[in-house]
């Protein structure tokens, strides 16, 4: 009966004042912190400072002590670190159980998780177990200081409007956050903080699905999020061959190839290259959009680029509204000229 009462109380809501502190999940793979983990430390730091509370990075893994140190240097006040062979590889059951136990014991008011494949699996599992809400795939976070509420903003209705979502009666307030959107925290060798070892109450029976082997994809993933220069192709290229010109220009500039969804849907290029709402969010120093109209869903992934160059034969194409430099013309005339000009540099 007691268990049911507790469950019911949780469903109705909790005493929000019992919950304090901002947590970010520091996702690591094979002992390397993901960029999104560092972005979340940056964003979490701002939120924690605004709320005058502590920022804790939650780290799970096997013998990744050096990452705990790194998280402190990036700006976490505390690192809550669960170290176990059972946590070496991500499993839904294992990670959910340990983080649920942490939340149950320490009661944070906010928890942010990167919207990676793992984060998208882990976030909903934890939120369901704690009986709280989760806003998936946030692109912006603000704080309503008076009510200590996280204002979680994400694209809705196919990116046609931005919805701001709150979680008034339950804690923690949970969001998954799009990789590449928030600014990374700055590393500072002199920062100090506390590393707390959390002893996980976990045994192999708790993990129902076992990872037998990790098989890596043959082709290296395109590192769009990291790229300083991106040359992207759109439907204006007309066919898959058009991407040869995009590749040539990218190579000349020392950049990588991006694409609009129209070209991915047409099968001209793999999904790993897609920029936009359902692709990658990028913020390179230079983004060259070739034959891309500038649909809102594409802009959502690239409009924070430092310098945007657009090549389009339609002078009224919406991409010109966000472009710093616009070239009105046919990609098949402009691109070869640009490539040739770069040959002579
Ligand atoms: P088009 O819109 O067809 O534009 C082609 C452009 O090329 C035109 O402006 C045209 O003037 C120009 N052009 C044609 N020929 C030439 C030439 N020879 N030289 C120069 N210019 C030329 N889109 C994304 O990109 N990323 C996403 O992540 C994404 N997610 C989406 C999610 C949802 C839920 C929905 C509904 C849509 C999404 N879209 C996304 C699709 C988006 O709405 C657009 O359909 C898509 O971005 C259009 O791609 P495009 O600009 O290449 O093609």
Notable traits:
about 350 residues, alpha/beta, 5-stranded parallel sheet, about 25% strand, binds flavin-adenine dinucleotide, metal-binding, 4Fe4S_Fe-S-bd, transport, electron transport, iron
Describe the protein:
This protein has 345 residues and is α/β, with parallel strands linked by helices. 31% of the residues lie in helices and 24% in strands. The chain contains ten helices and 17 strands. The strands form four sheets. Strands 7-11-6-1-4-5-12 form a seven-stranded parallel sheet, sandwiched between helices. Strands 14-13-15-16-17 form a five-stranded parallel sheet. It has a three-stranded antiparallel sheet with strand order 8-9-10. Strand 4, helix 3 (65-74) and strand 5 (78-83) form a beta-alpha-beta unit. The chain is elongated, with a radius of gyration of 22 Å. The structure holds flavin-adenine dinucleotide (FAD). Residues 158-159, 234-236, 260-263, 274-279, 291-293, 295, 297-298, 301, 311-314, 317, 330-332 line the site of flavin-adenine dinucleotide. It comes from Tissierella simiarum. Pfam families: ETF, ETF_alpha, Fer4_7.
Query: Between the first and last Cα atoms, what is the distance in angstroms?
Result: 78 Å
| Bound heterogens, unique | flavin-adenine dinucleotide
Please tell me what the overall shape is. Answer: elongated
- Low-confidence runs: none
The helix count comes to 10
Largest sheet: 7 strands, parallel
Structural class: alpha/beta
Helix content: 25-40%
Averaging pLDDT over every residue, what do you get?
93
Oligomer state of the chains in this structure: single chain
Q: What is the string of SSEs from the N terminus onward? A: HEEEHEHEHEHEEEEEEEHEHEHEHEH
SS strand fraction: 15-25%
Q: State the strand order across the main sheet.
A: 7-11-6-1-4-5-12
Rg, Cα atoms, Å: 22 Å
Let me know the number of strands: 17
Pfam families: ETF, ETF_alpha, Fer4_7
Keywords: Electron transport, Iron, Iron-sulfur, Metal-binding, Transport
Protein name: Electron transfer flavoprotein subunit alpha
InterPro entries: 4Fe4S_Fe-S-bd, 4Fe4S_Fe_S_CS, ETF_a/b_N, ETF_a/FixB, ETF_alpha_N, ETF_asu_C, ETF_asu_C_CS
């Amino acid at each position: 009966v007691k268990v049911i009462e507790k469950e019911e109380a949780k469903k109705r809501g909790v005493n929000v004042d019992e919950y304090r502190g901002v947590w970010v999940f520091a996702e690591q793979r094979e002992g390397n912190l993901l960029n999104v983990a560092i972005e979340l430390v940056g964003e979490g730091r701002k939120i924690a400072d605004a709320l005058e509370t502590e920022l804790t990075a939650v780290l799970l893994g096997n013998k990744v002590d050096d990452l705990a140190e790194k998280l402190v240097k990036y700006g976490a006040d505390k690192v809550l670190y669960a170290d176990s062979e059972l946590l070496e590889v991500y499993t839904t059951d294992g990670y959910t159980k340990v983080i649920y136990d942490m939340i149950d014991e320490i009661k944070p008011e906010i928890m942010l998780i990167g919207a990676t494949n793992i984060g998208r699996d882990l976030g909903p599992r934890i939120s369901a177990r704690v009986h709280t809400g989760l806003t998936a795939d946030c692109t912006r976070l603000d704080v309503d200081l008076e009510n200590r509420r996280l204002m979680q903003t994400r694209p809705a209705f196919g990116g046609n409007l931005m919805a701001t979502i709150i979680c008034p009666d339950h804690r923690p307030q949970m969001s998954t956050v799009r990789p590449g959107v928030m600014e990374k925290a700055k590393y500072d060798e002199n920062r100090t903080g506390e590393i707390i070892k959390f002893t996980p109450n976990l045994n192999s029976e708790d993990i129902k699905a076992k990872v037998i082997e990790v098989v890596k994809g043959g082709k290296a993933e395109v590192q769009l999020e990291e790229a300083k220069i991106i040359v992207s192709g759109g439907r204006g290229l007309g066919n898959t061959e058009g991407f040869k010109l995009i590749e040539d220009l990218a190579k000349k500039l020392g950049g990588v190839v991006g694409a609009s969804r129209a070209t991915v849907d047409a099968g001209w290029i793999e999904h790993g290259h897609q920029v936009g709402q359902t692709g990658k969010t990028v913020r390179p120093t230079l983004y060259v959009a070739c034959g891309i109209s500038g649909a809102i869903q594409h802009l959502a992934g690239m409009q924070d680029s430092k310098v945007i160059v657009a090549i389009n034969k339609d002078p009224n194409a919406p991409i010109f509204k966000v472009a710093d430099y616009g070239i009105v013309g046919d990609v098949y005339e402009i691109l070869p000229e640009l490539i040739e000009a770069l040959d002579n540099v």
